[in-house]
Write a structure and sequence with these properties.
The complex is a heterodimer of chains A (343) and B (328).
Chain A: H1 2-23, E1 32-36, H2 41-53, E2 59-62, H3 66-75, E3 80-83, H4 89-95, E4 97-112, E5 122-123, H5 125-133, H6 142-147, E6 159-163, H7 168-180, H8 182-186, E7 200-202, H9 204-214, E8 218-223, H10 224-230, E9 236-238, E10 244-245, H11 249-258, E11 283-291, H12 297-312, H13 314-320, H14 328-341
Parallel strand pairs in A: 1-2, 1-3, 5-9, 6-7, 6-8
Antiparallel strand pairs in A: 3-11, 4-8, 4-11, 9-10
Chain B: H1 2-6, H2 10-15, H3 17-53, H4 55-61, H5 64-67, E1 71-72, E2 77-78, H6 81-112, H7 115-129, H8 133-159, H9 179-203, H10 207-215, H11 220-249, H12 252-258, H13 275-282, H14 289-327
Antiparallel strand pairs in B: 1-2
Helix pairs in contact in B: 3-14, 4-14, 6-9, 6-11, 6-13, 7-9, 8-9, 8-12, 9-11, 9-12, 10-11, 11-14, 13-14
Classes of the chains: A alpha/beta (343), B mainly alpha (328).
């Protein structure tokens, strides 16, 4: 069956190539290719499909992970890369790359404790760090029960689930923990993958989601869309203003509005622990990387056209997939940046 | 390449058919030898390529790459002890389960089962071998792991967790994901491989031998332990190697149920990592030179581990054969 499918897709690909050459290379006939972040894949592929039906170029995106995306765009094998961890300006200058945000989403601590309703469990940032560091070991630890009076918590061990692959989601998660917990900063620290003191590792967001669903009394972190799709119970988090907020499009955009993009050079800004009364503290951004002086000007223009479409008409589609549109001021800023930087 | 070899033979084709036959024979010999040597060449080239790719890791960490247990990506410190340990322990559990069960299946099918049922059961076992490993992984994660977490592991830690020597093997929270679960899933996966070969081997035992044993008044058990098993010993050990090789290198199923955690723990209930699973999980995102080199070095170590295990088994077999040769 599998072989048949492969054979069929080969034939389809061949047919597509054939028809393209016959038509005599229409604008962007070869299509735009990109690679990187898995976080952004659902919305990026939806944009690509819509864009094509509206007469745009064919955009082929491979969700190989942020690190892979950075490597590929630096090597020049793809027209754009996507990463959840922004590159610093000097790194961008060295590789002659431009960088801009494309969409905002959230990372959510998900739990599997029988009888616990979504959002009922409250956690603070430092407590979340202690749980993932293995310092708070039981669900009825005084540190948890003190925050959650009236919530019945079992006396069982907490099973921690983290990512086994390097990931931008992990970078944003550990970046947040490092900001709010000095002990975490000194311990595992931040990075696309860290030396986890405890727990099991799942591959990809879907791997973590599957582990959390299967392992009783577990806690993990996944991208918001996976929470919605899998109906997973989640914890609410205390933000920097002291309020406990649940993950939602509203709390993500509150964080986005309060982030200070205007002064961030090359948009090098990680939005975790953003200020604001309703801001969700684990809000994350995906960035697009493109060469400033592309080898293939036509393809680069096609890619920019696609991203301009994504930033305007595509934002409604993003909302449907539980991502958050970028604030208008930011979109304007990106537009100017692209015009100035990508030749 | 073939054309070049064939060409000089052609003139003799018409003149002397006898010499032609000899040449064809030599040609055939050459082709088969080339095929055999090609395998060796590929093996050597693969090992060399991986050693070369991993040279940065070996140069940076030296022997500590094998003895250190920390796998800290941000600090760029890599030690392969946890994946090596996890690979060996899960494969050992798999063999402890699979060997007796497979030999039991094979014996039942060759000697005990009613004749009409042999072919269907044998076919079913061979079909089991054709199931892709990701299916075993999903079964392990969605069905077997919760069963282990809810029933088996609490019972194990209650009954054995406080015992003197084996206690540390069975402590820890029952999460269902870990070395024991991975070992059992691997065991189920290698059973068809060992059982299918063992069945072929057992059915090749000359009936005259068994009939003589029956004539001498042997019980079924005596025929098995004194005729069938000694007669087929080296082939059975070969079958076990085949299963072991599969267990050592299995990737997808192990990734699902082992937990992919770089943690060294004596307890079989705790998550760990295996060489193949670590490579599968981390290779796409290994974005520094040293990280990638360490993963390739891991691949080379899997080569070395497999080679050492097979060598030990071969030596063991030679010793058994020599001892038996002396006593009889």
């Amino acid at each position: 069956m599998k072989k048949l499918m492969i054979a069929l897709s080969f034939t389809a690909a061949l047919a597509a190539c054939g028809s393209n050459t016959k038509q005599g290379a229409p604008a962007g006939g070869a299509g735009v290719t990109g690679a990187g972040s898995t976080f952004v894949y659902p919305v990026l592929s939806a944009w690509a499909a819509d864009y094509k039906t509206q007469g745009g170029a064919n955009v082929n995106y491979q969700s190989i992970g942020s690190g892979g995306g950075i490597a590929q765009v630096k090597a020049g094998t793809v027209d754009f890369g996507a990463t959840d961890q922004p590159l610093a300006s000097d790194d961008l200058a060295k590789s002659n790359l431009a960088q801009f945000p494309i969409v905002i989403g959230g990372i959510v601590p998900v739990i599997n404790v029988s009888g616990l309703q979504p959002g009922k469990l409250k956690l603070t940032g430092p407590l979340l760090a202690d749980v993932f560091a293995g310092r708070v070991k039981k669900w009825n630890d005084p540190a948890i029960t003190a925050l959650n009076p009236g919530v019945s918590l079992p006396g069982t061990s907490i099973a921690v689930v983290h990512r086994s692959d390097a990931s931008g989601t992990t970078f944003n998660f550990t970046h947040y923990l490092s900001q709010v917990s000095p002990t975490w900063k000194g311990g595992p620290g931040e990075g696309k993958s860290v030396n986890w003191p405890t727990g099991v590792g799942g591959k990809g967001n879907e791997g973590v989601a599957a582990y959390v669903k299967q392992i009783p009394n577990s806690i993990g972190y996944v991208e918001y869309a996976y929470v919605i799709q899998n109906h997973m119970p989640f914890a609410s988090l205390q933000n920097s203003a002291g309020t406990f907020v649940t993950p939602s499009a509203a709390s993500f955009s509150a964080a986005a509005e309060n982030a200070n993009w205007a002064t961030a050079k090359d948009f090098n800004l990680v939005m975790t622990n953003a200020p604001g009364a309703n801001a969700y503290p684990l809000t994350a951004t995906t960035f697009i990387l493109m060469p400033r002086q592309p080898k293939d000007k036509a393809k680069s223009d096609e890619a920019l056209k696609f991203f301009r479409y994504a930033l305007s008409k595509g934002q409604g589609q993003a909302q449907k997939l539980d991502y958050v549109p970028l604030p208008d001021a930011l979109v304007k800023q990106i537009d100017d940046y692209i015009t100035a930087n990508v030749k | 390449m073939n054309a070049a070899v064939v060409h000089p033979i052609e003139p003799s084709l018409t003149s002397t058919p006898v010499r032609d036959g000899r040449r064809a024979d030599r040609l055939f010999h050459g082709i088969t030898a080339a095929a055999a040597w090609l395998v060796l060449l590929l093996l050597g080239a693969t090992a060399l390529a991986m050693a070369w790719g991993g040279r940065l890791a070996f140069k940076t960490f030296g022997l500590a790459f094998i003895t250190a247990s920390d796998w800290d990506v941000p600090a760029a410190k890599f030690g392969a002890l946890v994946p090596i340990y996890g690979t060996l322990v899960t494969s050992a559990i798999a063999l402890i389960i699979a060997v007796p069960v497979s030999i039991g299946i094979a014996l039942f099918l060759t000697d005990i089962a009613p004749r009409w049922s042999r072919a269907p059961i044998a076919l079913a076992i061979e079909l089991l071998a054709a199931i892709p490993s990701i299916i075993y992984g999903m079964w392990g994660l969605f069905i077997f792991a919760p069963f282990m977490a809810n029933h088996v592991e609490p019972w194990l830690s209650d009954h054995f967790g406080n015992k003197a020597i084996i206690g540390p093997l069975f402590t820890g929270p029952p999460i269902g994901i870990g070395m024991l679960t991975a070992g059992i899933v691997l065991g189920v996966m290698v059973i068809p491989f060992i059982a299918a070969v063992a069945r072929e081997v057992f059915s090749a035992v000359p009936p005259a031998l068994k009939e003589s044993a029956v004539a001498l008044g042997s019980t079924r058990w005596e025929i098995l332990s004194r005729v069938t098993l000694p007669y087929t010993r080296s082939a059975i050990i070969g079958a076990i190697f085949l299963g072991l090789g599969r267990a050592l290198g299995e990737t997808m199923a192990v990734t699902f149920v082992l937990g992919n955690a770089h943690e060294l723990s004596a307890s079989l209930l705790m998550p760990s990592n295996s060489i193949a699973a670590a490579i599968a999980n981390e290779f796409t995102e290994a974005d520094t030179e040293l990280y990638r080199s360490s993963l390739i070095a891991l691949g080379f170590l899997l080569f070395v581990v497999t080679f050492i295990v097979l060598t030990i088994a071969k030596l063991l077999l030679m010793r058994i054969n020599r001892q038996l040769g002396r006593t009889s």
